[in-house]
UniProtKB/TrEMBL annotation:
The keyword Protease applies. Keywords: Carboxypeptidase, Glycoprotein, Hydrolase, Protease, Signal. Coiled coil: none annotated. It comes from Pyrenophora seminiperda CCB06. InterPro entries: AB_hydrolase_fold, Peptidase_S28. GO terms for molecular function: carboxypeptidase activity; dipeptidyl-peptidase activity; serine-type exopeptidase activity. The keyword Transmembrane helix does not apply. One of its GO terms (biological process) is proteolysis. This is Extracelular serine carboxypeptidase.
Amino acid sequence: MKSVLVPRIVFDEFISGFHVIEPSLVLLLGLEFKMKVLRTLIGGLAALGVGVGVSASAAPRWTSKRAAKEAYAPHTIDMPIDHFPESSRYVPHTNATFKQRYFFDSSYYKPGGPVFLYIGGETSGESRFSNLQTGIIQIMMEKFNGLGVILENRYYGESYPFNTSTTDELRFLTTEQTIADNAYFREHATFPGVNASLSGPDVPWIMYGGSLAGAHTAFTMKTYNDKFAGGIGSSATVQALLEYPQWYTPIMKYAPADCVSRIVNIIDKIDNLIWSDNKAGIQAVKEVFGLGSLSSLGDFAMTIAFPIGGPMNYPTNTWQELNWSPLYGSSDFWNFCSNVTNPSPPENISSVDTALAKYTNGEAWTGLGNYANYIKQTLLPMCTSGRIDSTDPGCFSTQNQTYYADVTNSAARSYLYSTCSESGGYQVAPAMGPSLLSRAVQIPYTQQWCTWAFPSGRFNSIPATPALHYYNKYGGWDLQAENLALIDGNTDVWLDLCSHSTIAASGPRISSDRFPSYLIAGAGHHWDSYGIGDVGAEPAYIREAHYWEMRTMGRFLEGWGERVG
């Protein structure tokens, strides 16, 4: 769901419903960008079966049943930049509009059918095409004879209000402006070639969004409920918190126990060296990972956490990129754990486990050789310049203030701005207890990126820490809205920012006919959004979630007919 910016951005290309990541452009932070952008990585990593048998997988390119269909044509709507001309928050105001893109599929549409609006979230509209082809929107279109449409989020894809993204120009990138776009689109959208007007109040519209877009769906249903027949917020991150160490909780709980315990013990030893300011020991462990020249302890901590999921930043597939379907998921995390727990590594790797024992009172660092070898074989080759402590493509430093000040329009910059200004969710190590991430990573590590990226402008400045009240005013964990369904997965790293959070003060969410909700046991981040073109052939736990969504949307559509009478 969440992503933040670092100096090595992954640019994604989306081709016929699948996307390819350019291997030389290695990093995107990933609420979701994070979430989906990093689904395929360097195919050549699969050949790295050296030493411990390192391997990494990329999600296979897939061909949908509708692969022969030409790419969806982009359309645009003239969207007001400023929906709130009376609010002092957006002074100076503007009456200007920008071209906001959308894409639609009318192949299932029959007169009288509903419109299913997919909220694009923090990526380009093209990246969501699979939802029209085999995913949740295709499922709903086929079931209800509807039209499906993807609305690209403001400040993403090609839907930028301005030519650059200065701090002043980003002042219109807020939650309330974004959800106002959804309501405006519902009332003004046109669909060329469709012999019907679908923006009238008699036409039922159903929204769907996953992750950050799921939160936007929920907030839209809360604020503009009379305009929509219903909505589904999937893995909707409805609660904003400044820090979010719980990102690692599902991994601690559900990943292979021996893999978790080895990493936790290694991190404990590293942190003890840091706490005791043992410079020789710190340098020695950095050298073991091949990162001896990396000057920032935060950058070192983040880099070795990449296979797990670094603090809003990682170049490889992680726990979050697991998926019920091999068409979309990756086994990289399982390969990582398999390497870390390999019981029979060659001697040159196993000997590393005792090489640093002099810094831990003779205690071995079990699994260190395996862990370090994986990092050296899969991550270090990405830094093709060899300048480890730099912001060169694929390298591992984030300490580059000039880079962050680049005002070029980009999804990563837009996401970072939202993170810094409203939503927070900084992935840090927990204050107490076991950790998969070094305690060197705390709030200041991420906050410095905000400071560097967004210097005060003439009309706008970011707060010292995110102004969470702008995001939480819709209800946070306790958000409820008529005809809003909320669905989550219990192994999702973003679960504790969602409605089924395990840390919400109000306790577990209970479903009702009025406020339906569903927790998919064994599922990750908005796994219900994916499909294979045949619901009946899906794994039972996904199939039943899709059947529940269809039943729920059926009730919402019936209710809309009664509402508009």
